[in-house]
Amino acid sequence: MFDRNYYGHSTQFFGVEEHRLIGGRGDGMRLIQVRNGSGVEFTVSADRCADISRLSYKGVNLNYMGVGGYAGPSYYDDRGDHFLKTFNCGFLTTCGLTNIGIPQKDGDEDLPLHGTIGNQPADQLWYTSSEEMIEIHARIPEMHIFRQKMELERTISCPVGGNTMTIHDKVRNIGSRTEPMLILYHMNMGYPLLSEHSIVKVNSDRVIPRTEHAAEGLETWDQMIPPVRGFEEQCYYHEFDGREACAGIFNPDAGAGLRIRFDPAQLPYLTEWKMMGEKDYVLGLEPMNATLDGRKGLRESGKLPYIEPGEERVFEVRVDFYDSKEAFLNFS
Prior knowledge:
The chain is mainly beta. It has a single domain, classed as Beta-galactosidase, Chain A, domain 5 (Distorted Sandwich). It has three helices and 25 strands. The chain has helices spanning about 210-215, 295-300, 325-330, and strands spanning about 15-20, 30-35, 40-45, 50-55, 60, 65, 90, 90-95, 105, 110, 125-130, 135-145, 150-160, 165-175, 180, 180-190, 200, 205-210, 235-240, 245-250, 255-260, 270-275, 280-290, 305, 310-320. The strands form six sheets. The protein has an eight-stranded antiparallel sheet. Strand 13 (about 150-160) and strand 14 form a beta hairpin. The longest helix is centred in the last third of the chain and has 8 residues, at about 295-300.
């Protein structure tokens, strides 16, 4: 794509740079900035599970950033739903591995909202950058003496000059007992990608409201509205019958959009989090391997996924980017 004779250092067009925040609750956080030379730009937060805090395409912001902004893992409070105090959303917050969904007590273990992995710093993080591909690699522990001993190995890859990004995760049980293993990719769309003019498409076979309040809006699950004061969130489960799962959003006003793709054999569900509130204006499109009933509820219903000692589970989510409404609507 780029003629090497026309530039000196590759970061004129693409590459990886490391930064640290100064001041506030994000003081000292290590951020990895990626540009792929064709408009895909994102930030990987090394101290927050190597999640993606910012994402843009051709200068258009795509993600929602929570009102609290960046907060280091030392500010995390694992009591009940206090996760929300430092939930910066970003484009991706990983939830799990011991719990997703509601906080609850399972046996003698108190499980916080969405688990703790998203607030764990990467033990190791490194990257490679060439004229063909940029890759960010990380290992994130989920360890507890007398309890779970799991490890998340993550690779985020982005081709130079392309319009895709892939998140490839391996979860390993390095302990000696069978463990529950839950994962949710909390992917959060924000303004200007998200507005009342956004086109939202999911190729699901079934759409199931999570609450009675969500059921009231079932017929308009794919219709976005302007921010509303006091809006009560609506959540929907999308289920797929075997084929590749796709969920996307495009805003003609912004001239940008994206499509999320994943294998329902790995991640059988997608939660749509429709939150149209003032300041809390976000659409979550969230692939996951179980519903949001929490570990205890899933165990009691017989739907709790497990991972055996020495077993490795692979999860992959691909994101495609669009600047054309016509190309986006070619949706399968």
